[in-house]
Design goal:
Shape: globular
Number of domains: 2
Strand order of the largest sheet: 1-4-5-6-7-8-9-10
Largest sheet: 8 strands, mixed
CATH class of the largest domain: Alpha Beta
Number of helices: 9
CATH topology of the largest domain: Penicillin V Acylase, Chain A
Number of strands: 15
Radius of gyration: 18 Å
CATH superfamily of the largest domain: Penicillin V Acylase, Chain A
Low-confidence stretches: none
Strand content: 25-35%
Order of helices and strands: EHHHHHEEEEEEHHEEEEHHEEEE
Amino acid sequence: MIPIQTLTLSGSYYENGLSIGAMLKQSPVMQTQFKELQKAYSLQQNIDEIKGILNVYCPPLLEELRGIIDGSGLPEADVLRLLAGYNMPQLSELGCTSLITSHFYVRNYDFSPKVYDGLFIMNDTVYGNTQFLVGRLDGMNGNGLVVGLHFVNNEFYQKGFLCSTIVRIVLEMCKDVEEAIQLLKKLPHAACYNYSLLDRKGNFAVVEASPNDVQILTRPKELACVNKFQTDEMGVYNRKWTDSSDDRLAALENVNTSRTAEELHDWFSQTDSPLFYTDYDQFFGTLYTVSYIPNESKIYLTAAGSKERLSMKIKQ
């Protein structure tokens, strides 16, 4: 089993940052991970540019980062360059599968445990699985907006926000799918990603985003999202090899969405499910299953290899 730690925070963004920074300072494992990431990425971004872009799109995130700097005692430049998620080198490929209806959102996240926080943070505004502590792989906010990321292609990489920072910004700044779509059209995207969305009103969509174009994918009853763009306009951005995504889309076509969110969550998380992968050495192993049910403010989370379904309620 790949463990997931949960962390509950309460207070201002700066106070939450202080808590995260203190956790980073007190954890030898996290400090080692931080240093290894610094070596791997050789980051040289302009920190004034990072502050400026965050101040435009999500000032609360900048406050949290200031708290992390003070709480950890690490140099400002190191924290901003690694955790702010702006103008970073390309990440490895992240696999993800989601099924969305007007009632629920079920998702598997696939990657390598070597570059996985294994942390689910709950604060006063956003509940979600973290990446680089500040970013979110997926999450739900107090308004009932759900956002998750799905890697598509790095070939068209440009200066812009990291995918997990984009998820966090949308969760912090938007209350529903309509607002999320409008913000995702404005944000500078570093790479090609899908952003799957659901809100408390039952609206759902996938935003197909590249550094140069954004298109919106919708369906009337349910919507599956994997690691490829599905609109004709965005097909040119897909990788040549999409067999895994095609296989997962085919498996989801036959799913009975009248099943409960709990039943589908458990099916996603079973190791013999066609959506569960174990290729961890190739950065494509399932690390967790998460389900968000906005109109009940409910979240289910299962670590890979576990049969336990952790249940949480989000503050409204």
